[in-house]
Amino acid sequence: MSGFEFSIPAHRHRQGTAFVTSMSSTHHAKDLLQEVFGYSEFRPMQEDIIQQLMAGGNAFVLMPTGGGKSLCYQVPALLRQGTAIVISPLISLMHNQVHALQQSGVRAEYLNSSRSSADNWQIEQQLLRGELDLLYVAPERLVMPAFQQLLKRISVALFAIDEAHCVSQWGHDFREEYTQLDCLARSFPQVPRIALTATADELTRSEIVERLSLHDAPCFISSFDRANIHYSIFSGLNPAREHLLDFINGKHAGHSGIVYCTSRKDTESLAHWLASKNINAAPFHAGLSPETKHQTLTRFLTENDLVVVATIAFGMGIDKPDVRFVAHMNLPDCIESYYQETGRAGRDGLPADAWLHYSLADLAKLGKRINNAPVSEQIRQRKQYKLNAIHSLCEMPTCRRVRLLSYFGEQATRPCGNCDNCLHPPTTWNATLPARKALSAMARTREKFGAKHLTDVLLGKDNPKVVGFEHHKLSVFGIGKDDLTESQWLGLFRQLTALECIETNVDTFGLRMTPRGRSLMKGEFEIELRQIAAQAHKRERSARKRNAQPASDTNISHEDSPLWEALRAKRRALASELGIAPFMVFSDASLRSMIAVNPRNLDQFLEVEGVGKHKQAKFGEDFLNILSAFS
Ligand code: ADP
Ligand code: ZN
């Protein structure tokens, strides 16, 4: 696509900004991308969305985390007359975005309760004087009558509603005030509105359109593929934390990561244990004091290697581009959550890992929670369907990405080559006979028992429960002794559930047969199952060891070089001088690009990815000195 042109409104010239003054009156969005943000090309969709807003239209944008949503409104904010108002749900998000924009010379500010009223007053004055390109506000402030009055006195370039899924009452992130944002359409019908989210669920989409009055807005859906994320899923590793440690030491020593656990207690004990193994780790959950949470969040943003062990309370505000891995110690409740959480890895586009370990117990716990939730039958079924979907993602023997994308309605043309199943295809085996034995055991015990008890019956264990129910007298007692081990039987039940041959009876918590299971028992078809995941994990590990080079090297080249370290040290020093996070000075991607471009002077420094005019002037000399010292 070629660049397109817009006229910069005359009044912008009168005001003048650090960069606008140097622009001609007709300006390419693409030039602005280069001069301000330091990028040479738009990503797919960004240009179309910008064009839509420049033409005065509304837009609804669905892009995965890290897809580059912010630029879609930041560029028009700079090109259109007036100030763009960005509605953002969290102070930490606003803070990050504003500081990052300021580093690129953009006149951005935020108003919120964390600042003194004197500060907020100052910013309102700037707004009234037309000195701001972007203003970030929380939804509760936006809907206040006083703020609405203020907006009537200025020229608004556009409204951007970030994290638009917060209007959805079904979601984790529901925010009451978001539902009042429909006032924008009524009070400012001429001002373009853009809603953005990374949550792709159908129902959420229609809720956003409805509640934000975006019926006339074209929907821009970019691919949800996060090609740089390597997915791997395990179960039956015992103890799982040893394997996690192995994974961190093997592939992510010295990297930033997030480890999700379900309970607060688990986050604390796991963080403590990791710390005892020399990993820089800290817990995070909703029960900690605000100061501790703030401190951990700040450490996460400023330290290069902190691993935060968290509940999902550590979520939406995490806008750090260089998180190299996200690990789950338990099964998430649906693919949406899993995708959103793993999406926090590798926003910078560099290789990153999504590592998940789960157990049958997780599955049972989640099933129980759904069953006990005070919700309608319809919602219960929907939740159960979602749980089945993530379970079957875990058990499948083929490409994970193909399944993930198809879940979000996207058709992948071929296996990705960057997930555990693609790289180390699990061996499958014909499990028809053991499966029939398992189904018979279920039938004989009247489909009232769980996998553990059924396994005991199949293995011929005459423990008190088996004897109590007189299951040691059944013909199926001990018929599975020679086929499989205990953990293999448990794995078989898991996979039969994932394949929808059996399901959990929500009344009795016993396993029962589906029509498909009945047809399997009758011998109407055969099944192939994957080898249990523990074996696959061992294969991945030994494959890694065979490829003798250190794993981190395959992730980020140059990472071990003294030059890389020197650039990182400079970045850290500048960031701490400025009181901002290192990635706001330059991303890892920019540092890599610096090494590749190897600029000799300030002009060449502009060729580095992520270097615009402002950063060229502000940081160029410092980094050029280091580069020349190493040449
Ligand atoms: P999102 O809000 O969709 O999660 P961001 O807007 O934070 O994503 O963008 C993710 C990363 O991609 C940021 O580091 C951003 O600077 C970078 N980025 C966005 N657009 C481009 C582009 N056209 N070229 C290069 N990098 C880009
Ligand atoms: Zn794959």
Per CATH, the class of the largest domain reads Alpha Beta
Beta-strand fraction estimate: 5-15%
Task: Catalogue the unreliable spans.
Answer: 1-26, 533-540, 543-556
- Small molecules bound: adenosine-5'-diphosphate, zinc ion
Discrete helix count: 30
- Classification by helices and strands: alpha/beta
- Topology-level CATH name of the largest domain: Rossmann fold
Blueprint (SSEs and pairs):
Layout lengths: L4 E3 L2 H6 L10 E3 H9 L8 H9 L4 E4 L7 H10 L3 E5 L3 H13 L4 E4 L5 H12 L5 E4 L1 H4 L2 H8 L3 E6 L21 H5 L5 E5 L4 H10 L7 E3 L7 E7 L4 H12 L5 E4 L3 H13 L4 E4 L5 H13 L4 E4 L14 E4 L6 H8 L9 E7 L1 H13 L4 H19 L4 H8 L12 H4 L4 E3 L1 H13 L6 H9 L4 H5 L17 H13 L3 E3 L6 E3 L1 H7 L6 E3 L2 H14 L4 H5 L6 H17 L3 H4 L2 H10 L4 H4 L7 H18 L1
Parallel strand pairs: 3-8, 3-9, 4-6, 4-7, 5-6, 7-8, 10-15, 11-13, 11-14, 12-13, 14-15
Antiparallel strand pairs: 1-2, 16-19, 17-18
Helix pairs in contact: 3-4, 15-16, 16-22, 19-20, 19-23, 20-22, 26-30
Bound molecules: adenosine-5'-diphosphate and zinc ion.
Adenosine-5'-diphosphate binds next to helix 4.
